[in-house]
Amino acid sequence: EVQLVESGGGLVQPGESLRLSCTASAFSFSSSEMTWVRQAPGKGLEWVSYISSGGGTIYYGDSVKGRFTISRDSAKNSLSLQMNSLRVEDTAIYYCARGGSKLDHWGQGTLVTVSS
Amino acid sequence: SFVLTQPPSVSVAPGKTARLTCGGNNIGSKSVNWYQQKPGQAPVLVIYYDSDRPSGTPERFSGSNSGNTATLTISRVDAGDEADYYCQVWHSGNDHSVVFGGGTKLTVL
């Protein structure tokens, strides 16, 4: 069964950094596009970032461009999201998902809270 | 940027048919995916590429897409279908991005 497990969330102050990880299992991670999506409390889904299977193509949503960096380590079946200069409005559950144009499996998410 | 518009809420009686719409400029030219999200859970893909069902999605769920509107249709609605539903497309404009609609809360009366 495809499994995606996020980790690394927590409480940080505005301006600080945080690194999220997503560990994948039971599928060919190296052949899969991957995506981060977030959901602010009580709000809808917001796309954050995409990375191609080989890592050579990366896209970001406008609200995180220049502050967040997506990466992957296929040897470790791991996806990461480095989040710098965090803002209060970045508070959300962050999900990793398999796919790019369609997201066919999602992790359970990790909560990031940015507050002073 | 590309915008997807969904009604905030739809209500339907058990056993009836729910039609959830997703509007966008010439959305019929794009492939639309639909996700179901129940409270406290991660989203689940229920329809992809306009009308295909992943394994595990009941046949009661169907999708269509034409012109400026995509539609998720749920037949014989039951209480277990109560959830938030999001439409989504991949937009390739000046930049590439995934776009989600704002979501529709389906209430089973």
**Largest β-sheet summary of chain A:** 7 strands, mixed
Strand content of chain A: over 45%
The total count of helices of chain A amounts to: 0
Please report the total strand number of chain B as a whole number: 9
The low-confidence runs of chain A, each spanning 5 or more residues with pLDDT under 50, are: none
Structural category of chain B: mainly beta
In terms of quaternary structure, the protein is heterodimer
Following the backbone from N to C, one meets helices and strands of chain A in this order, namely EEEEEEEEEEE
Q: Strand count, sense and closure of the main sheet of chain B?
A: 6 strands, mixed
How large is the count of helical segments of chain B? 0
Radius of gyration of chain B: 13 Å
* Whole-number mean pLDDT of chain A: 97
- Low-confidence segments of chain B, given as residue ranges, are none
What coarse outline of chain B follows from CA principal-axis ratios? Answer: globular
The percent of residues in helical segments of chain B reads under 10%
Can you give a write-up of this model?
The complex is a heterodimer of chains A (116) and B (109). With 116 residues, chain A is mainly β. Chain A has no helices and eleven strands. Chain A has strands at residues 3-7, 10-12, 18-25, 34-39, 45-51, 58-60, 68-73, 78-83, 92-99, 103-106, 110-114. In chain A, the strands form two sheets. In chain A, strands 2, 4, 5, 6, 9, 10 and 11 form a seven-stranded mixed sheet that branches. In chain A, β4 (34-39) and β5 (45-51) form a beta hairpin. The N and C termini of chain A lie far apart (40 Å). The relative contact order of chain A is 0.32. The model of chain A has no long low-confidence stretch (mean pLDDT 97). With 109 residues, chain B is mostly beta strands. Helix content of chain B is 0%, strand content 48%. In chain B, strands 1, 3, 4, 7, 8 and 9 form a six-stranded mixed sheet that branches. A three-stranded antiparallel sheet of chain B has the order 2-6-5, with no helix packed on it. The radius of gyration of chain B is 13 Å and the shape is globular. In chain B, 37% of the residues are buried. The model of chain B has no long low-confidence stretch (mean pLDDT 96). Chain A binds chain B through residues 35, 37, 44-47, 50, 59, 61-62, 95, 100-109, and chain B through 1, 31, 33, 35, 37, 41-45, 48-49, 54, 84, 86, 88, 90, 95-103.
